[in-house]
Amino acid sequence: MAGENSLTASSPTFRLAALPVTVQAARETRQDVELAGGAVLRGTVRAGGGRPVEEARVTLLDAAGNVVDTLTTGPDGTFRFVDLSSGEYTVIAAGYPPVATVLQVAGGGRTERDLQLGHED
């Protein structure tokens, strides 16, 4: 299509690129597009003694304090953020949120209560 156009290129392993392109009628137009890969941040959440923490909540903040992404670690405690722009980030790792339950205990009796830890998704 002759005139001003937008050329967009993408790939699963690279960041999206969009360029303005002027196409002339009845002529071949060539335009090179350079795709840049986003940065990857990965790591492992560990408890005392170096034990990996499964299902820890990991939050990534940008330099302005905005949440970029949040994920939960796997069985080996690892996390991986992909397609990041260059810049400064803050990584926050936390275990399970606290769980509270109200119960009545009778004198001389026996009371049992199970508690389930987890993240609300």
Number of domains: 2
Coarse structural class: mainly beta
Note poorly predicted spans. none
Strand content: 35-45%
The run of helices and strands is EEEEEEE
Largest sheet: 3 strands, antiparallel
Q: Give the strand order of the largest sheet, numbering strands 1, 2, ... along the chain.
A: 5-4-7
> What is the CATH C-level name of the largest domain?
Mainly Beta
CATH architecture of the largest domain: Sandwich
CATH-assigned fold name of the largest domain? Immunoglobulin-like
Helix fraction bin = under 10%
Rg: 25 Å
Shape: elongated
First-last Cα distance:
46 Å
How many runs of DSSP E, i.e. beta strands?
7
CATH homologous superfamily annotation of the largest domain: Immunoglobulins
The DSSP helix count reads: 0
Average the pLDDT over all residues and give the rounded result: 87
Write the layout of secondary structure elements.
Elements: E1 3-11, E2 14-23, E3 39-44, E4 57-62, E5 67-72, E6 78-84, E7 89-94
What report would you give on this structure?
This protein has 121 residues and is mainly beta. 0% of the residues lie in helices and 41% in strands. It has strands spanning 3-11, 14-23, 39-44, 57-62, 67-72, 78-84, 89-94. A hairpin with a 2-residue loop joins strand 1 (3-11) and strand 2. The mean pLDDT is 87. This is Efflux protein. It comes from Streptomyces griseoflavus Tu4000.
